[in-house]
Structures are given as structure tokens and as C-alpha cells.
């Protein structure tokens, strides 16, 4: 139990609490700045403060405060001040005094607009941040989580390359530009996404993070952004003007609106599990200690591997997370949230997040990394980890089992797995194809993971072979199949993605994998240059067949409900794994026409061997739609009559009746 005793307290208002559990919980609307032309109201939850001030500035950076206003202590740890006059365009910071020590300027924990680098909050009228047409913006239709296809994207990876033909390279506005293409005529930007057919774009951290200096737009800088500074404000370096607090908000909304118009939903990557630093963080300068977990010795705990871990189980941290996602969903029309290191959070908080988002729109998707870097300071039965997913209905997690069974283990990038012909991963592939639900033909396999059927429903299971972490798929294959030719690599990317897109889980693809993007062999490229991270869009021409293949996989999945039954019972009833003659071959048949599919008895064979294989199937007449690295759903690729399917080396075969 963490103890925080404030000794030597002289001021009347300062409260002493035996433990964080005794801190008051604020129940009113948690707003730190409420603007009106006649008066701006400031509030800050700072229950251990003896004094709190709000300081007004003319700029987001530099210069002395023009005014300093003492705040008054209110109920439940909240402090308040009202300032008359029109403060629009001014900047502000709070300063909290504890034990006679001023903690330093902070924009507060709830800042919704900030100046450059997020050091000061800004007085804005949120109405000014709405682009034209914003009130008509609607989420694209989504009938079921089973229909989702996720595309994970970093702004700079996607559009920093000059070949993209995009003007606002690496910015939010890049995603608003239509009609862009490479000099070779391939569509880029939002048109590329439409062409590919994904339903959701998952944006890597786009909240305000600290690692990129927003005052130096011409300095080469790149970061994934998992170093949160202000959780409720868009990052400034992706805006055309990080100094004007309105611009980043408006441009973010323009991006959301453009994606929505293109029929694509928007997912935010959120990292509430840690902050960039503790010293000087918005949390620490407001209520020291409270928002972070401590270990048994009273030191900062570090389940994130980033030097700290937040304390979601404390009521005001829980409330903070719920308020924050609700705010993004309402103010920015965000359609989904991907929780970084979700295993650090507690189950009750994640369920509270689900409930709050359901009240806004139950089609908002939630998923996360169901693990932590180090063991969190929370009993395992309370952790929002994969093995507890059944206690979190409506929330999904990434399947590292499926990923590792396909591409090779985490932690040793020289090792491959199923797709490069290593034995022992067939069960892991079957586990993933079944969407991680209990299935009578999926058995525990100790080669990689224990393969516990942790998903109650397949929409709780995110299927993928690569993401921003680790090597992208082309690099991983190069690493694990030394000397492989480009043709071999292309074949194996196609085979890997066939597994992902015929899985009953929710498919997820990393930006550029559809054109064989590489990161020049750099795995943890979180702060590598654009040279490593930006996609060279000339690849869309040289790897056009891979793009067409992935595009067709997506189209096939969308057209055929059998590939996305969305229900564990249906999967057990219809999905049957077929006997295979050798290792590194997995075959399954979707019996009947689940979901009213036009196709009957769809049969998929994944052959990762270097020779052809023959699979026995019930005798009949089959129509081929995928063979030898090509897909043609409409015209088909010929027929097979009889009871045997012959599948070429390193390729997938898909047939139906
Ligand atoms: Ca920033």
C-alpha cells in the first residue's frame, strides 16, 4: 500500500491523507477551462495542494505571465477561479503549491488546446475548431465488429515520401488530399486506402507527445509517439501550424471527416499506461504520486518499461481514462481505440471505458495489447491481459500466438515459423484461423504459446502477422529465409496475409505491408529517420501483384460472410480443419453457407512447403478463386472436379462449391 503523508503542513487548506485511497473523488464535470466571451472559468483537481494559481500568458511559449490568479479551494479536491473578460487567444498554466513548494507550470491534466510543444494550455472556443461541414460528419456504417479490417498507420510512414505526390507530407492534412498518385500513376494517400478497401485506419499516437520538438519543423525528426504529454490534444508536429492551438484541432477534424467521407473509420492509438516522464508531467505537477503506481518500496513501478506505470485502479485515474476516450469519441468522432500495453490497466477500468463508449456509440471498437512489459503492480486476476479477455466482453486483444506462429517468435528475429517452413507451428496457425475461440480441432502447442482459447468471441481477437513493433513482414522474411529471391518473398507475404484475412478474428495489416514495404532491417524503428520509416511508394508499381492480392483478399472477406462469422458457436459448427499430409500445411473447410454466403463449402489450403501438396476433400466440383499467388473472385481461376486439391509450393489455394 502506497503511503503519502504530507509532513510539515502549515497552510490551512492543505489536506493530509494516509493513502491514495483516501483522496477525495471529484464527481462533477471535470473541466479545467470553460470559455465564454464574458468570463473564463478555470478548475483543477489538486486535493493535496495548499495553494493553486492560474497564470495567464500571451503566447504558448516564452514571456512572463501577464496575470496570476489565486484559485479557491472547493469541494472534493477541486480548485476554482473565474476571470472576467474575453480571454480567447490567451494561454494559461496552473501552478500547485504542496509542502510550501511550487510544483511548476502545468497545462493541467485535462487541457484540450495547447500552444507549441504542449507546455501551456490555450483558451479557445471549441466552436472555432470545427471545419466546415463538421456537424454533418457521420461515422461510416458498421454492422458488426466482424466486418472490420484494420490498417495501422504512422502519418510519416504513409505520406512523408515525395513520390507519394502528397503536398502535406507527414501531416494530418495528407489524409484529406484526394487524387494523389506516384509519377508512375499509382494511387496514393486516401485514394490508396479506398482502393485497398480497409474499413478502419488505426493512427499511431496522434495525441500530443513530447519526443518531437514542434518548434523545429525543418529538423529531421521522427517518433512513433508513445511518450504522452497531453492526452486530450492532437500532436502539434502533424499540424501545419503547431503554434496556433486551433489549427491542430481543426486539421485533425478535417482528417477524420475526409476519412469518414471515404467510408473509413478512425482508430486512435492511446497510451494511458505511462507518461513520457514523471518529473514535470501534467499528472505529477498536479497531484504528485497519485496517478502512478509505486512498488513495495515506494519507488515508481515500471510495467511499461518506460520508467513508470499509471494507476488505473485509482478512481480519478480511472475516471481520467473514461473521460479522455469519451472526449475523443464525442469531440473528434473517433471510432475506435487501441490501448497500448492494456495489460497494465485493470479490468474494471477497461469495462468502464467500454460502457462509456457504448453510451456514445456501441459500434466504437476497442482493442489493445493484452500484456505488459514488466509485471504490473496489480494482482494478475485484475489485469486487462489476454487470459482475462472473457471478463471484458466487447474488448479485443492482439494475438501474438497467431503472429508468432506465422512469422516467428518475438525476441529472436532470426527465427522464422510456419511460413518459412519451420515445423511445429500448425496448431498456432489453426488457433489463429479459428479466431482464438474454443475449437475442437485446435490443441495446445507448446512450441510457441500455450494456445489457451482466450477469446469468447472472434471479434475479441485481432489477427496479424506484423505491426509497427518489430520487423515488418518483408524484413522478417528476409531475415529468416536468407538469400530468398524477391519472388519467394512476395509469395510468402501473400501466404502470410492469406492466413490473416481468412482468419475468423479481426484482420489487421501494417501500413505498407501490402506493397512489401521494408524498414531496411530496423526493428525498433520508433525514432529512426524517414529514410527507414517512410514507405517508398514506387513499391506499389514493383509489387503491384502483392497489392492486388491483398486488395482481393480484403474484397473477398467483405463479400463473403463465411470468412467472418463473428460468432464462436458458428465457428465451431462450420469451420473444419482438414487432414494434411505433411507439416507446414494447414487446410480448412467452411462447411455450408454460414451467414447466407453465396459460396458453399469454401476450402482454404495454406502450403508453406517448397513442394506441392495434395489434400483430400469430399469429391465434387470446385471453383478455384485463389491459386499460385493470384486471386480472381469474379471470373474464377478454373475448376477442379474430384476429391483432391493440388496446391503449389509456398502458396494458398482457395476453392468453393
Ligand atoms: Ca508534441
What does this 3D model show about the protein?
With 657 residues, this protein is of the alpha/beta class. Among the domains are: 4-129, Immunoglobulin-like, CATH 2.60.40.10; 142-265, Glycosidases (TIM Barrel, Alpha-Beta Barrel); 575-656, Sandwich (Immunoglobulin-like). 20% of the residues lie in helices and 20% in strands. The protein has helices spanning 155-159, 189-196, 245-261, 315-331, 347-360, 400-407, 426-433, 473-480, 486-501, 530-533, 539-542, 544-559, 568-574, and strands spanning 33-35, 39-45, 51-57, 67-70, 72-73, 78-84, 91-98, 101-102, 121-122, 150-153, 200-203, 207-209, 228-234, 265-270, 336-339, 365-368, 396-398, 461-463, 506-510, 575-577, 585-590, 602-607, 613-627, 630-631, 639-647, 651-656. Strands 10-11-14-15-16-17-18-19 form an eight-stranded parallel barrel. Strands 20, 21, 22, 23, 24, 25 and 26 form a seven-stranded antiparallel sheet that branches. Helix 4 runs parallel beside helix 5 (347-360), helix 6 (400-407) packs across helix 7 (426-433) and helix 8 (473-480) crosses helix 9 (486-501). The longest helix has 17 residues, at 245-261. The protein is globular, with a radius of gyration of 26 Å. 56% of the residues are buried. Calcium ion (CA) is lined by residues 117-118, 208-210, 212, 214, 229, 235-236.
Question: What key attributes describe this structure?
Answer:
8-stranded parallel β-barrel; TIM Barrel; 657 residues; Immunoglobulin-like; globular; binds calcium ion; 13 helices; alpha/beta
